[in-house]
Amino acid sequence: MSTKTSIPFLDTESAARKERIRQLKRGFRTFAGNKLSLVGLAMILTLVAAALLAPYIAPFPEHAGAGVYFDQASEPPSATHLMGTDTTGRDIFSRVLFGARLSLLMSGIVLSIAISIGVTLGLIAGYLGGTTNTVIMRVTDIFLAIPPTLLAMAVVAATGASLFNVMVAIAFSWWSWYARLVQGEVLSIKEDEFIESSRALGSGWVRTTFREILPNVVSPITVKATLDMGFVILVGAGLSFLGLGAQPPTPTWGAMIAQGRNYVTSFWWIAVFPGLAISFAVLGFNFIGDGLRDVLDVEVD
């Protein structure tokens, strides 16, 4: 007669796997139960698809460049030009699609840089404490005291107007938010038992911070990054509107609004449709961010 024997290690691992599956199902139900989150997800998927497929779905892809078509200038929305044309005859719908590619690329690169710098400094400051924490957080406070748009404008004015310089400038002004967020999270868990166990086993501070602490602060970072995607797009559009972003004929939403601002009363579509594209992107990311905040049960400033 045989008897089943269980291995405690395998039982624990199986229980942990089942718990993770339950948490994923619970999170999916929470996200799916928030209608605005689903709307936001649909909006962003549409935006990403439009950006990726822009060369194939844009009716006039050549209009994303420097062409001039005066015979089609300032035409209102129609079946041929869904969003009308600008003062040089370029199709606005095609330019909005290509502008989406630049906006998503810019926000992705900006947040990648900002998160890399901010999270690293936040981990170091929170874990080491003392003078290191004081110095890093005082520098962080200085950056937090300056509005991101103003700081980015100063950096671009000093380095020159271009898409690359705009991305660097915005990232330069954005990392401090992540440093402050992560430092606060680290301070709240650095004395927990699993951290003490890591220290007792002889792990150095680098291994402890990046192997033990970092995975536990991913949730607030994810929520904040999702919310920030829309705001970075908004700041980038503002800089382009002021002529500090990518230079013509590159199709950026902010520059397209700047071009049409003098014709709002006569050719309203030139400025209105790029503005709606910005609103669409910002709202979509905000809706998703709110949903993720409920799923992950975190609070971010």
UniProtKB/TrEMBL annotation:
Q: What does the record say about its membrane topology? A: Multi-pass membrane protein
Location(s), subcellular: Cell membrane
Q: Which GO terms describe its cellular component?
A: plasma membrane
Using the record for this protein, list the coiled-coil segments as residue ranges, or answer none: none
What UniProt keywords apply to this chain's record, in alphabetical order?
Answer: Cell membrane, Membrane, Transmembrane, Transmembrane helix, Transport
Q: Which Pfam families match?
A: BPD_transp_1, OppC_N
Gene3D superfamilies, alphabetized: MetI-like (1.10.3720.10)
Q: Which SUPFAM superfamilies match?
A: MetI-like
Q: Which residues cross the membrane?
A: 36-58, 104-129, 150-175, 229-246, 267-288
Which segments constitute the ABC transmembrane type-1 domain? 100-289
Give the UniProt family note.
Answer: Belongs to the binding-protein-dependent transport system permease family.
Q: Spell out the protein name for this chain.
A: ABC transporter permease
> From which organism does this entry originate?
Haloferax chudinovii
